[in-house]
């Protein structure tokens, strides 16, 4: 397997299995980081989550939609951990897409029907004056922890991964 194939495989494993990301936003007072539970979408590569509209990161997204974030997992075979960092543009889900997006989110995040039923919020929570919104971050750049280089010199570095193959996975 080529190095680029390994990077894509590692990236896809993180995207599909990590479930939580740290999302960094910015407001006039500075940066803010929040951990949110996401599900991935492809073509283009997007991460989907929901948050309260009044949450600091939600308000920041409305003011400045450029965000960055990280995904991290431990307890993995081999090196024991892996992680990615990304930048992207975040936006709320609105209009005709809302029902389909909510359905996808709940089915993907909670495959068990009973668990999904217990977690599912009514769609009205995400519409109009509802307290919550679904958000996407459309990934613009993606980097992985450079494990191979770390094994050589123990320097914590990142390696860029092309987005086009990740968007299609």
TrEMBL record:
UniProt key word Oxidoreductase: yes
Molecular function GO labels: pyridoxamine phosphate oxidase activity
Keyword field: Oxidoreductase
Broadest EC class assigned to this enzyme: oxidoreductase
Pfam family, one: PNPOx_N
Domain Pyridoxamine 5'-phosphate oxidase N-terminal: 11-102
Assigned EC number: 1.-.-.-, 1.4.3.5
InterPro entries (UniProt xref): Pyridox_Oxase_N, Split_barrel_FMN-bd
Full protein name: Pyridoxamine 5'-phosphate oxidase family protein
């Amino acid at each position: 397997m080529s190095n680029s194939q390994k990077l894509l495989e590692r990236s896809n494993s993180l995207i599909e299995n990590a479930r939580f990301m740290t999302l960094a936003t910015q407001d006039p007072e500075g940066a803010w980081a929040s951990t949110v539970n996401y599900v991935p979408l492809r073509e283009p590569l997007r991460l989907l989550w929901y948050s309260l509209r009044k949450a600091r990161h939600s308000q920041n997204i409305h003011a400045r939609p450029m965000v960055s974030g990280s995904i991290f997992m431990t307890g993995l075979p081999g090196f024991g951990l892996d992680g990615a960092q990304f930048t992207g543009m975040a936006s709320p889900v609105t209009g005709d897409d809302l029902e389909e997006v909510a359905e996808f989110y709940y089915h993907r995040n909670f495959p068990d029907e009973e668990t999904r039923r217990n977690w599912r919020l009514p769609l009205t929570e995400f519409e109009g004056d509802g307290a919550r919104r679904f958000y996407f971050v459309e990934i613009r750049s993606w980097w992985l922890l450079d494990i191979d280089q770390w094994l050589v010199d123990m320097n914590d570095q990142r390696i860029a991964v092309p987005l086009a193959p990740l968007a299609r996975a």
